[in-house]
Specification:
InterPro entries: Cys-tRNA-ligase (IPR015803), Cys-tRNA-synt_Ia_DALR (IPR015273), Cys-tRNA/MSH_ligase (IPR024909), CysS_C (IPR056411), Rossmann-like_a/b/a_fold (IPR014729), tRNA-synt_1_cat_dom (IPR032678), tRNAsynth_Ia_anticodon-bd (IPR009080). Its EC number is 6.1.1.16. The radius of gyration is 27 Å and the shape is elongated. The relative contact order is 0.10. Strand 14 (471-476) and strand 15 form a beta hairpin. The strands form five sheets. The chain has a four-stranded parallel β-sheet with strand order 4-3-9-10, with helices on both faces. Strands 5-6-7-8 form a four-stranded antiparallel β-sheet. A three-stranded mixed β-sheet has the order 12-11-13, with no helix packed on it. The chain is built from 16 helices and 15 strands. By secondary structure, the protein is of the alpha/beta class. Helix 9 packs across helix 10 (306-330), helix 10 (306-330) runs antiparallel to helix 14 and helix 12 runs antiparallel to helix 13.
């Protein structure tokens, strides 16, 4: 039984979708005015896993992640670059798609854009005015939070507390300083506006998601996700708008992903620690980012530091090294045919039950990773490179590989060819160490020659030299192989 932490109720709840066997999921996507940073992708990576697991449980999932292509930041970027705002937005949507694809994530069923939903946005604003939830001020339209008695139910913030310290801008015609914009009148030189009953203008930020979600799924959806920083005011205002129109609950399960910290400090442009995903992936394998995100529970702050990257590399190396060894042992004798090892199969079935329990407990990835680490530890204690391949050993290698692939499929991890991945990982680490593969290959070959000549003193000297370069050498009956120390 799947249990989900619902931010609305602040507790774990049994997951029961609105329609049996079907799940609608809407996740707030990026505002596309620049290359997206590593923090922007925590949600997409996590909710990709959520969709995968729900499908594993048998649900048909319809997943939408939007693009906000109407925003002040886009207008500013367009003015700086002397381009049309939509040209800027489309360019950065494609950059996002490039990074998303590089991470090996599954495409969504829907990627709505604000510009595609303008009729629905205008219609929803009109409906809110008709229901006395919103009012016209000049050519602007504002939502009246006093018209929605449950305002604050998601974030737990009280309107009387929110009013303290709020400053009203000059000429801002609001009945209440906390009222928010549904439609903003066009300003000269912005270059982006639409006709409406209240004059030319563009939508406020919050109404956009309400209208897109409603246009795709109707008045109610099962899961609405996003970053914790969106809970207030964005998601709070979405509730006020959507429920102000429909008169009933908008979202059944609200799920919020926590922030990334850079060495204990929140990522921010003012601190100069913003890292784009594009730049991160130039120096690091995509699996490293996914590991960093998914090895931490989604409601916990995730550390994003050199130390966290090192931990991810070490973890990935353990997984892929075990997989590479299983493939190596399995292929060492083509004449051997697998004979099912029933005891080992049952051991893995028990481990999978523990993984299911972890995932069903609010998508508990850390507990699931702990189970798989134990599976790997036991496998490594049984299987060694160069060992005699028996039908039972063949079966264990086969079952182990299938188990890791099955686990990784939920997370979009561990699907790379093991030896290829390890080589690519080592190549990236060699760049950071300032070492060259050709030099190391030559040293390892020299060491093999002196070992064959039984000059073990010289062999030890070469091993130490390689170790000092950050390289570990292993000797097996099949020869010597090396890897970067992780």
């Amino acid at each position: 039984m799947l249990k989900v932490y619902n931010t609305l109720g602040k507790k774990l709840e049994e997951f029961k979708p609105l329609k049996e066997g079907q799940v609608s999921m809407y996740v707030c996507g990026p505002t596309v005015y620049w290359y997206l940073h590593v923090g922007n992708f925590r949600g997409p990576v996590f909710f990709n896993f959520v969709r995968n697991w729900l499908e594993h449980l048998g649900y048909k999932v319809t997943y939408a992640l939007n693009f906000t292509d109407v925003d002040d930041k886009i207008l500013k970027r367009a003015q700086e670059e002397g381009k049309d705002p939509q040209e800027v937005a489309e360019f950065y949507i494609e950059q996002y798609r490039h990074d998303f694809s590089s991470l090996g994530l599954r495409p969504h069923e829907h990627n709505p854009k604000v510009t595609e939903y303008m009729p629905q946005i205008i219609s929803m604003v009109s409906e809110l005015i008709e229901k006395n939830k919103a009012y016209v001020s000049g050519h602007d339209v504002n939502y009246s939070i006093e018209s929605f008695k449950d305002y604050g139910k998601l974030s737990g913030r009280r309107t009387d507390e929110l009013k303290e310290g709020v400053r009203i801008e000059v000429n801002e015609q609001k009945r209440n300083p906390l009222d928010f914009a549904l439609w903003k009148s066009a300003k000269e030189g912005e270059g982006l506006s639409w006709k409406s009953p209240w004059g030319d203008g563009r939508p406020g930020w919050h109404i956009e998601c309400s209208a897109m979600a409603r246009g795709l799924f109707g008045d109610q959806i099962d899961i609405h996700g996003g970053g914790l920083d969106l809970m207030f005011p964005h998601h709070e205002n979405e509730i006020a708008q959507s429920e102000g129109c429909s008169g009933h609950d908008f979202v059944k399960y609200w799920m919020h992903v926590n922030m990334l910290n850079f060495g204990g400090t929140k990522m921010s442009k003012s601190l100069g620690n913003v890292v784009s995903m594009r730049d991160f992936l130039k120096a690091n394998h995509p699996e490293i980012y996914k590991w960093m995100i998914l090895s931490v529970h989604y409601r916990s702050v995730a550390d994003f530091s050199d130390e966290a990257i090192d931990r991810a590399v070490q973890g990935l190396a353990k997984f892929y090294s075990a997989m590479a060894m299983a493939e190596n042992v399995k292929s060492s004798d083509s004449s051997v045919i697998a004979v099912l090892d029933e005891k080992y199969k049952k051991e893995l079935e028990q481990a999978w039950k523990q993984i299911e329990e972890a995932f069903n407990d609010d998508f508990g990835t850390p507990a699931a990773f702990a189970v798989v680490f134990e599976v790997i530890r036991k496998f490594n204690s049984r299987i060694r490179r160069g060992m005699k391949l028996t039908p039972q050993v063949y079966s264990q290698c086969e079952e182990f590989l299938a188990f890791i692939k099955k686990f990784g499929a939920q997370l979009s991890l561990f699907q790379e060819p093991p030896q290829t991945f390890l080589t690519e990982l080592d190549d990236q680490l060699l760049v950071k160490l300032g070492q060259k593969r050709s030099v190391i290959d030559s040293l390892v070959a020299d060491r093999a020659k002196v070992r064959a000549a039984k000059d073990f003193e010289r062999a030890d000297e070469l091993r130490k030299k390689l170790t000092d370069m950050g390289v570990a050498v292993s000797d097996t009956p099949q020869g010597s192989f090396w890897e970067v120390i992780k």
